[in-house]
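Example 3.2
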Amino acid sequence: MSARNVLARAHRLSWLVLIALVIAEVVTDLPGPGWTTTFLPAAVVAVLLLTTNALQARAGAPRGGPREPVEVAPPVTGRWSALNSPADKVPSHGTHVYGQTYAIDVVAEPEAADGAPQARPPFRWVWPVVRRNRDFPAFGAPLLAVADATVVVASDGQRDHLSRNSLPALAYLMLVEATVRTVLGAHRVLGNHVVLDLGGGTYAVYAHIRRGSLTVKPGDRVRAGQEIGRVGNSGNTTEPHLHLHLMDGPDPDAARGVPFTWRGVGVPANGETFTVDAVDAVDAVDAVDAGAAGDAGDDGDAPGRGGKRGVRDGRSGAVGGAG
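Structure, written as tokens:
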């Protein structure tokens, strides 16, 4: 067991002790002054929480000089918008924990028949407090393997909960649900998820997958572009979307993040839309396969500059919501 695994377990244990202290204060009549039975122990545990959290973040931070991004195929087709992108800041989600230093969230922004963008439900201050997943165009969208790979983890069974895209629902997520999921471990934060071994010490994590949609199991070999599941709303999330990141090991508690770039798309910035159609996805897969054989880069498309395999239209999408 690595030091990072130990820190993760210590952090979760600290949360459990703090919760137990709060419950004990409410339901029992402990002898002695309150500061000795509740306040002092809670203060000690709070310090442990802050310390283990800081040590986790430090242990998960990249080591050495800047690492070259790993080029992979896009994991989706259609028109999407990026949120919490490493193109804007690193760590993109405000933490190195779970190997998500360079993680990205994407939400579907499909076009209607008249060519206008099909709006997804906006964030609301109060009402409606929650929405059903079918109201979001990303829900049920196919997820594609970003490279030829071996399935290491294929975790299913967690429900797709209602959205958290209102102020009351978001407050519940941040103050209650996220804490509970943290205590229960990375698999509850990621929800239904898949981890692919891309080779060369690089692993891809797909999080928040729809329950019952997985088409793979541990040990399976998959081809780049193969469907592995569908977008869902399981785990620590506000709305249906894909959370994807690369890391240097199969265990999120012990891994460090690895930077990525999508063939023909690059790394879209926050609020930036990009489009990948089925033909473009096949071309990107072929290019990634060629790169694995040592022939990548001969077509002259610069990653992050669009090119013939993907389109980044630069129009602003929504900049909040997914977590």
